[in-house]
Amino acid sequence: MWEFLVDRFNQILFSSWQHFSLVVQCLILATLIAVGIAALVYRSKGLTGVANGISAVGLTIPSFALIGILIAPFGFGVTPAVIVVTFFAALPILRNAIVGLTGVERSLVESARGIGMSRISTLLRVELPMAWPVILTGVRVSAQMVMGIAAITAYSLGPGLGGFIFTGLSRLGGANALNSVVVGVVAVIIIAIILDLLLLVLGRLTTPRGIRV
Amino acid sequence: MSEITQTTPGAPDDSSVSGTSILLDQVTKRYPGQPDPAVDGLTLEIPAGRIVMLVGPSGCGKTTTLKMINRLIEPSEGRIVLGGDDVTDMDGDKLRRRIGYVIQAGGLFPHMTVENNVAMVPKMLGWSKDRISKRVDELLELVSLDPALYRARYPKELSGGQQQRVGVARALAADPPVLLMDEPFGAVDPITRQRLQDELLRIQDEVQKTIVCVTHDFDEAVKLGDWIAIFSNGARLVQYDSPERILADPASSFVEDFIGSGAGLKQLTLARVNDVTLAEAVVARFGDDAKQVLDRMDKASHDHAVVVDDRDRPQDWLSRRQLGRMETIPSEADPHLPVVGERATLNDALDTMLVSSAGAALVVGRRDVFRGVIDVQTIMDAITAAHEAAIQDTGHDAPVGINTGSMEQVAGNGKAAGNGQEPDGGPAPDGQEPDGGRSPNGQEPDGGRAPDGQEADGGRS
Fold first, then answer.
1. Confidence of residue B400 (pLDDT cuts 50, 70, 90)
2. Residues of B in Cβ contact (< 8 Å) with A210
3. Taking the model in full, what pTM does it have?
4. Is A108 among the domain residues?
5. Cα radius of gyration (chain B)
């Protein structure tokens, strides 16, 4: 085990970084998409229902199946991995963003409009900042969830730690097979914890003191 | 910002008025799917620099009326004229930056500091940083909050009353001529509410804005309002008059019910102790000879003597019996002396009398100097006089307020109280288009309670 680690340390480090980078970039993309969609739908009860429905149904799609399907149009490599990870990351964020935005007190919005803030500036300067802690909670849930999903994208030869797990599993019983799987899994867990801590710090830094619990 | 200061009858004469008049001209609000309009053909004139209270039961459309002034709710029909400018079609956001708006509990943004909350509108108007910073200090001082202490605080670090003050400061930030308040003091405890009301009156003395305030609390309306508009359901204006006249001469049984019991007592809150003539009293000082004091009481045929200290502050109130038992006046102070300040309302004075069971109270002026005695009879006389004066006053200077097709409700002194006047019985509001000549200046009440043009309009359609 130790030897395995030392021998492949650089490769493990590189894959971990790639995994982390894939997850973080997809999270950013997913946050933008999800908040954008939430901003479009949260004022309509009907659209909110549809968005929540999609978010619930979407989460039931097996990620392994989705990546398999996506290989056909997009081929192997990074593209299907990014699509799958972003898709799954967006779902919890979308749900939380809707909850956050609809949870902003109506009187607050009215008071913003009442002092002459436009629709857009009310959204950007009042509603989104107020909803931000809830949205960020969604981001953290997503981050944990897509860490695992990002490993599965190795099936389409995407970047990250999934490679260790898949190669290990495919020649289970062989030399270093188990080591490979364990290294992949443990590394995923470690970077998941690191990312969660980073998001926690981000939350502290970006939540105004006035609405901190 | 062009501020047109109109001299409307009933407005203060001095030039310190910074408010502008508001005119709702046959404004109607219909909501889709509701058969009856929420507001039906309401014409309401709000004089510059005065406080107008909109009162009525819940859901009567008073808040809708208020929100149509700054077009948070767009009127379905009718015009809104602000100090001579027709603002019905201008950009709503720009309009609202010219109108202060205060809601219950202040409506502060919890994620911004007090400073940023107050600075919101000036920032939108593109003021320089220096100017904004100065203005924030100025406003916080105006609402009696120490800027050094409160600038950097967040709303949750303030009490309800303080939040409400910051809300008022924010609304006044860009020095708007008009201030709209929607149940501003509904969410605070009674003691704080009273203090905030006093504060608002003090601020209004200073800034002289046109304030329109919605409340369901009639007592609040009496206390704050220069004019009170009472609405029944469907924003039907039942009476629009001064508090004195509404109390003395309610237009209908609806208004009577709304005033509730104790209209007479409420009138007591409108007059102050220094408005009435105080009775003289026999004044004695510590160490005076009791016999001499009794002689003076005989001459004045009084039964009591007031003992004051060397700074003329009342200390004791002695009866003949008590005096008869003394040689000289002892330097003792009675801690339960019924004392009222001369700025106190007659209501407070009466309350003091009742508590002390003396049937009278000592009035003190500045630095607690003794001024005279007020008794129940004085208050009775004052109220009777005020009551008669209010009825005599035909309210010719009252601003205009009518619903289409129900003119006599207000115009005819309301006693006819057109209960049978259904909204749809009146002329269709479509036929009531302003006839061009209806400039706000032309809208000034010309002595009659309803503008003549209104009548002509009604007849034409």
1. confident
2. 109-113, 154-156
3. 0.73
4. yes
5. 26
